[in-house]
């Protein structure tokens, strides 16, 4: 028995939902905005899924769709995210809980990353996800050399932000 399109999508989303949650965390500051953005990214992923050809990994493709959605929505300088209702909300998942000490370190890092521009945020996110520069470059649509140079500059910015 072969999977339906919806079953395949739900399976892939389930395996890669942390990507979406982390992007939401980078581009939002409260849980309502996080949930709205998660829903909007899921909708955009679902709409684009029939065109996913498998030429790259699902995770790479999902990064690109999620980052583009987040950047597009938050460049509008709008606090409220207009979302489209998606009836399959049963497929949304809650991210894992962190221990308190780890949560504090993560919180400080996210506060520092919030001060970066949209492209820098995306690059840091993928770097922290242990993506190689080839995949980062492919996802962001820049050269591998450019990705490396940008990341080195961002590291310097983050050091200054975290250790003023």
UniProtKB/TrEMBL annotation:
InterPro entries: RNA_pol_sigma-70-like, RNA_pol_sigma-70_dom, RNA_pol_sigma70_r2, RNA_pol_sigma70_r4_t2, RNA_pol_sigma_r2, RNA_pol_sigma_r3/r4-like, WH-like_DNA-bd_sf
Every RNA polymerase sigma factor 70 region 4 type domain range: 109-158
GO biological process: DNA-templated transcription initiation
Keyword Transcription included in the entry's annotation: yes
Pfam annotation, one family: Sigma70_r4_2
SUPFAM superfamilies registered for this protein in UniProt: Sigma2 domain of RNA polymerase sigma factors (SSF88946), Sigma3 and sigma4 domains of RNA polymerase sigma factors (SSF88659)
RNA polymerase sigma-70 region domain ranges (all copies): 14-79
Molecular function, one GO term: sigma factor activity
Family of the protein in this entry: Belongs to the sigma-70 factor family. ECF subfamily.
Protein name listed in UniProt: RNA polymerase sigma-70 factor (ECF subfamily)
Organism: Flavobacterium dankookense
